[in-house]
Amino acid sequence: MTIERMSVAEIKQSIIEKLEGNFGCEVSDATQGQLYQAIATTVREEVLRRRTASRGERKRQRAKKLYYLSAEFLVGRAMHNNMVSLVNEPNYMQALSELGVDKRLLFEQEPEPGLGNGGLGRLAACFLDSLTTLELPAMGCTIRYEYGLFKQKIVDGFQVEMPDNWLEHGNMWEIARPDQAVEVRFGGYVEEVQDSGKMYFRLQNYSTILAVPYDMPVLGYDTNMVNMLRTWAAKSPKDIDMQSFNRGQYARAMEERELCEIISKVLYPGDNHYQGKELRLKQQYFLSSASVQYAVRDFEKTYGPNWKIFPDKVAIHVNDTHPGMAIPELMRVLIDEKGLNWEEAEDITRRTFAYTNHTVMAEALEKWPEDMVRLQIPRIYMILQEMNRRLCEKLWSAYPGQWERIGHMAIIAYGQVHMANLCVSYSHTVNGVSQIHADILRKSTFNDFYLMRPNKFLGITNGITHRRWLIQSNPGLSSLIDEAIGDAWRKDCSLLTDIKPFANDAAFQQKFAAVKRANKEYLAEILKARQGVEINPDTIFDVQAKRLHEYKRQLMNALSILMLYNRIVDDPSFTCEPRTYLFGAKAAPGYYRAKLIIKLINAISQLVAKHPRASKMIKVVFMENYCVSLAEALIPAADVSEQLSTAGKEASGTGNMKFMMNGAITIGTLDGANIEIMQAAGRENIYIFGLNAEEVEQGYSTYRSSEIYETNPAIRRALEQLIDGTLCPENPRMFQDIYHALLFGDGGGMADPYFVLKDLPSYARAQKQLGEDYAKREQWLSRAIMNTATSGIFASDRTISEYNELIWHLPKLKL
Ligand code: 26Q
User: Fold this and answer.
1) What's the mean pLDDT in 92-103?
2) On the chain, which terminus has fewer CB atoms closer than 10 Å, C or N?
3) At a CB cut-off of 8 Å and minimum separation 6, what does 91 contact?
C-alpha cells in the first residue's frame, strides 16, 4: 500500500482551511501559535494515515515485538522530524515559504519534551527511530513526566533552574489510551494462602495507582511503519474519592489524588548519579510494572496462555538498571497471576530480558535500601529474596568459600538490593555501549559474572539517527552530499563513504566550507535571539556541549582557556587563530561543584571580554539551556568537538558521533566511542591527547597533582587565579572549592581524581596544534570532510541491526 505524499498545493490548502475552521483567521493575521496548530494538525493527519496503513500488521503476522523500557526518552521536537520521515520535508518547506511563514519561529512554538537528562535518554529516542525505519515491531516505554528536565537560566553567571511545564498547552503528538490503563500496587503486606496443597501469595492492604498510557507515534523514514512511544501517567484510581467528597472531605480526596499523581510528576535531574530516593524507586516500579503487565496482556490476546512461547514473541530490553524491576515483575505476573511455577517462570524471564549498561562509575550504580524495597513493593521483595537465594546457591558451588566475591555478586547483600547484579544474572545478554566500555565490563565491573558466562557479554557500540542529526538539522550539508553522490545515503548511511573521493576536491571543499559558514551564521542568529550574545562566524567554533560532570572535564577546557588568556595578556605580540569557545551544559541542581564550574566558565568569559587584545582573539560563551533543539542548531555549526572525559569514564558518548557526522574535528581522549571515531576517521583526522584508560588506572596510586602545580608555572598561575580575585573580584574565595579539589582532594579522597592537571599540558599542546592546523584551509576542510565520510558506522541503524541480530531476533514486518 502506498500513500501519496501531500503536494505543496494540498499542504497550503490544508493549512488555510485549518486556520479558517479552527480560528477563523487567515495566514496573514494568525498568531505563531495558531500557525503551529494548523501546520502540526496537517502533519499529524499524514502521520495517522501511515499508522492506519500499518496498524494490526504485527498481530496478523504474529511477529515478535520488542519492549524497550527506559526511564528516559529524550525525543526532541516532533513536527519537523515527522516532515522528514514522511519524505515530504521539501514540500512542507516550499508551502511554508509560499505562505510567508517564518520557519524558525514556527518550529520554536512546539514545546520540547524534555523526558531525559542526556545520553541515555537520547539514545533511547535514536533507537526507536531506527527500529521503526528498519520496520522492526517495537514499543518504547517510559514515564509521562509532567515536568521534564528543568530549564536552565544563567543569572549573574550562576545556573538557576526553572520548571519545565511542557504539557501546559497540550501535546499535539500524543494519543491518550485510557482503555489500556493498568493498575500498579504499592505497599501492603503479602499473605500466604494454601489452596489444595498449593501455596499462593496475595497482596493485602495495598494502595493502587492507575497507569494510563499516552502514545506518541514514531515514524519510520520512507515507510508506512509506525511504532509507539508509550508514556505512562500516574492517576488516582478513584479520580476524586466520591465517598469522602460527599462527607465534605473534599480537601482530603484531592490530597489523596495528588499523592498518587506525584509518581509521574517530575524527572529526576541527576545524570550518571544515583540517589536512593523513595519516589524514584516508585517511579521505576511504576514504569516496570505497567509495561510488563501490558506486554503480558498483549501477548495473551494474540497467543492465549501459551507461556512457553513468550520469549519467542516478546523481547524486553532494560535501558540501564532503572527499569530493572521489570524482571521480578514478570516473575510475579507469571507466578501469581498466571499460575506458573518458579522454574517455568524463571526460564521464561531469563529468555525474555536483555540489559544494557551505560556507566562504570560507582556513584551511578543503583543500590536500593532493602527496607525501602520491602515496604514499597513487598511481593517483589520476596521474589528478589528467592532469586538471590538461588543465585547465591549457584555461586557457592562455583566459588566455594569466597564470601567476599559472592557478596559482591549477590542481588541482596549488606542491606541493599543491587540492581546491576539483578539485571546481569537474570538477562540472557548484557551489552556495553562501546568497545572499551564492554571490555571494562568484562574485565572489571562484571568480571565475576563474565568468567561464568563469557558469551553473555556483548559490546555493541552506540549510534545516532542520521535523520535527525544530519538530514533534519543540516539540510545544507545534506543537499551537498546528494549533489555529490546521490541520495541513497539517506536510507543507507554507510554510503557516506562515497564522499571520501571529494575530500580533496577543491570545488566540493568550497561548498562544504560555505555550508559550515551558513550554519555558523544561523547559530549566531539563534544565540542573539536566545540570549543576546553576538558571536563571529569568522572564528573557529569550538564546542563542548554535554551534561556538566567532573569526569567530562569542562574544567580542563576552562583552565586551558584561562592559560591562553594569560599568554595573550603577557605577550603583546602573541597571535592565534580567533576562536569562539561555546559551552552548553546543565548541572544537576544538587551538584555544587558542577554548578561552580558553570560560574567559573562565565567568570572567564567576562575576564576575557574585558581585555582589549584578548577579546579580539577569543570569546567564551556559555549557552543557556542546552537541549535537543539547541543541539540541532549548534552541532552543524561546530568546527571543533571537545570530548575530554578522563579515559575509562565515558561509556561511549554520542554527542561525539553527531559532531563528527556534521564535519567537526574531534579533540579528545582515548575513551568511549572516541577510540572508534579515531579508527574510522583515521589517526590524522582527530586530535588525541592525555592518558589512556590503563594509565589512569595505574595513576590512582601514584599521581600527585601538587607535583604538576609545583613544576608547571602556567598551570600554577591559573590555579592561583581561582583564589586571588582575578576571576571574581567581589568574592576572591568564590572558586576555593575547585582549587582545593584539584590540589588537596575532598572527603578523604585523592586530589584531582579526574586527572585534570595531569592531562592539561598535553591538552593545551593539542589545542595549539589544532589552532595552527585550522589556518591550513584545504587540509582542514579535507579532514573535516573525511570525518563526515567515515561517520556512517555511527548511524543507529547499524547499532539496531546488530542488537537485532545478536539479541532480539525481531522479524522485519512485511508492509
Ligand atoms: C539513577 C537513579 C536515580 C536517579 C537518577 C539515575 C540516573 C539517571 C540518568 C542515572 C544515570 C542516568 C544517565 C546516564 C547516562 O546518560 N549515561 C550515558 O549513556 C550514554 C548512552 O549510552 C553514553 O553514551 C554515555 O557515555 C553515558 O554517560
Assistant:
1) 98
2) N
3) 5, 6, 7, 8, 11
